[in-house]
Amino acid sequence: MAQESNDKLEFGDTGTTTKSPKYKSNKRDYKKKRPIQWVKNTAKDLLIGNPCMEEVTQEMGFVYLIQPKGASPNKNEVQRLMHNLFAKLAITFRNGPFWKFKLKKKRKECGMETGDIVG
After folding, report:
1. 7 in the Ramachandran plot: left (φ > 0), alpha (ψ -120 to 50) or beta?
2. Are 64 and 38 in contact (CB under 8 A)?
């Protein structure tokens, strides 16, 4: 009897698996992996290079982009402010309304753990 049920299966198929995949990628997964860029003029108090802080910003879905004033693509202050407005709005939708408080708390914790912030 077991032989009869196996005769109907094609090569590579078993009772629980088939060769044709049923997995379809989710478009939202692709969008979530792309980090949002938050433009800053200086790297002061951002703890850039700190592995703990980089992990926190990666989990929140954004990266800091350090550009001095007048550097492209945001040549004037209005362009930078508009870009950051939409970036912060996107980060808010991704992480909730209190994401800035969470970020400040994590920044302080990461700085204390690694010795970047003393006090």
Report:
1. alpha
2. yes
